[in-house]
Amino acid sequence: MTIMPVLTKEDIRIVHQYVLHNFDAVMEQDRRIRERNAERTTTPEIQEIRKKGHAKALALMEQFARNRGPYRIPRQANAGRTV
User: Alpha-carbon distance 19 to 12, whole Å?
Assistant: First the structure.
């Protein structure tokens, strides 16, 4: 399975020709897709989950910052630099 398919020049030429010959249909499909995406909303339940997750992440970052002391990278990894 390929994660990122590779289009050849011939593939791109074929798509280009299809769009040229079917421009109105392609644009209509694009309009419908964009309209459908614009109508999608996140449900209140999901918004609440995201809000709570964000608050929890901020609290953990603050806690880590308070508990963290000076951190040093081991010598062999950094040739003496400190962070």
Answer: 11
Distance (Å, whole) CA 52 – CA 46: 10
pLDDT for 83 beyond 50 = no
Beta bridge partners of 82: 72
Domain spans of the chain, in order of start = 10-67
Taking the CB of residue 26, how many other CB atoms lie within 10 A of it? 14
Cα separations (Å) of 7 from 4, 18, 20, 58, 59?
Answer: 10, 15, 18, 42, 46
Q: Both tokens of residue 5?
A: 């398919």
In degrees, rounded to 5, the angle at the alpha carbon of residue 82 between the alpha carbons of residues 80 and 83 is: 150
Question: Pick the residue with more confidence: 63 or 48?
Answer: 48
pLDDT, position 67: 81
